[in-house]
Specification:
Elements (H helix, E strand, L loop, with lengths): L1 H14 L14 E8 L2 E2 L5 E8 L7 E9 L9 E3 L4 E4 L9 E3 L6 E8 L2 E8 L1 E2 L11 E6 L2 E3 L7 E5 L9 E7 L6 E6 L2 E6 L2 E8 L2 E2 L3 E3 L7 E6 L5 E11 L4 E11 L3
Parallel strand pairs: 2-10, 13-22
Antiparallel strand pairs: 1-3, 3-7, 4-5, 4-6, 4-8, 8-9, 11-12, 11-14, 14-20, 15-16, 17-19, 17-21, 18-20, 21-22
Length: 266
C-alpha cells in the first residue's frame, strides 16, 4: 500500500504542473471538478463519484481514467485500492461524467488519475461521514442567461450563436447564472454555545474553452440573485464551451456545460 501511495503522490505532482495557468481558461487536458452524491453520508452509506473533464486539444484521442478509493484522507501510507479497472474513453472537446460507486469508510477519499498521450492529471474528493440531522446535498444550477437570453445546457441541445463583425470582432458575452432556491440549505453545526444553525455559502467557478473569463469564481448572495461573469470571446470566433461549476462550503458540487458558436466575420 505504501508503494501505491508513493506512486499516486508522483502522479499528483505531475497533475499540478499547470497550476500557474489562469484557472478559468481551459487549453489542455484537465479535470475541472469531482462530485460525490450525496456529498455527506451517514455511517454505513455509500456515495457515487463523478468527474467533469475537458480535453480541448485532444481531438478525440483515447483518454484513460483510473479511480482510486482511500480509507480516510490521502496521505503517505494511505490505504488506497483501485475502485474499478481503468477505463479508456475516446474523448471529444468538452466534458463528461463517469460514475463509480465506492464503499464508505471514515471520511473516504476518492482520487482520479487521467492519462492521455504523455499527459497525466489528477484530482481528489473527500466525503464527510456524519450523523448530522441536516446532511448536505449538492447545489443546483437553475438557469443560465447569456446576453439577456436563457440558454439550455449543451447536453440538452442548447447552443447560442454570437455574431462577430470585421471591424470589432466578437462582442463580449454577459453571463448570468441562477442557483436553485434549494441550494441555500440551512444546517446544524456545533458552536461554542451549543448547536447553531447556518446557511450554506455558495459560489460558482467559471471555465471557458476559447476566450477569457473576467472572473475565476463568483460568490452567491441571496436566492434569486444572479452570479455574473463577462466572457471575452476570441476575435476569430469558433465553437466555444463554458463550464459552470457550483460549490457550497460543505463539499457539495454540481455543474453544467454550455455551447456557444461565435460566427467569425467574413
Amino acid at each position: 500500500m505504501e508503494k501505491l501511495a508513493a506512486i499516486l503522490g508522483l502522479l499528483l505532482v505531475a497533475g499540478c504542473a499547470g497550476e500557474m495557468d489562469k484557472q478559468s481558461e481551459v487549453e489542455k487536458l484537465r479535470i475541472l471538478a469531482l462530485s460525490a452524491d450525496p456529498p455527506e453520508i451517514q455511517p454505513g452509506e455509500g456515495a457515487t463519484f463523478r468527474a467533469l473533464w475537458a480535453d480541448p486539444e485532444g481531438k478525440g484521442r483515447d483518454v484513460t481514467f483510473a479511480w482510486m478509493a482511500c480509507a480516510g484522507p490521502f496521505e503517505p501510507g494511505a490505504m488506497c485500492e483501485p475502485a474499478m479497472p481503468p477505463v479508456v474513453r475516446s474523448a471529444s472537446e468538452g466534458g463528461d461524467a463517469f460514475v463509480v460507486p465506492v464503499a464508505p469508510a471514515l471520511d473516504p477519499t476518492v482520487m482520479l488519475v487521467v492519462r492521455a498521450g504523455g499527459e497525466t492529471v489528477t484530482a481528489m474528493k473527500r466525503v464527510t461521514v456524519s450523523r448530522s440531522g441536516t446532511p448536505n446535498h449538492n447545489p443546483g444550477i437553475e438557469k443560465l442567461v447569456l446576453n439577456g437570453k436563457a440558454l439550455e445546457p449543451a447536453d440538452d441541445g442548447g447552443v447560442a450563436t454570437v455574431k462577430c463583425t470585421a471591424d470589432d470582432g466578437c462582442p463580449d458575452a454577459e453571463v448570468q447564472v441562477f442557483l436553485t432556491k434549494e441550494s441555500f440549505e440551512t444546517y446544524e453545526t456545533q458552536g461554542l454555545g451549543g448547536v447553531e444553525m447556518k446557511t450554506d455559502q455558495l459560489y460558482v467557478s467559471w471555465f471557458v474553452v476559447g476566450g477569457e473569463a473576467d472572473k475565476t469564481r463568483t460568490g452567491a448572495g441571496e436566492p434569486g440573485e444572479p452570479l455574473k461573469m463577462t466572457w471575452s470571446l476570441p476575435e476569430e470566433g469558433g465553437e466555444l464551451t463554458l463550464y459552470v461549476v457550483a460549490h457550497d462550503t460543505r463539499g457539495g458540487v454540481s455543474w453544467k456545460r454550455y455551447a456557444v458558436k461565435a460566427a467569425a466575420a467574413r
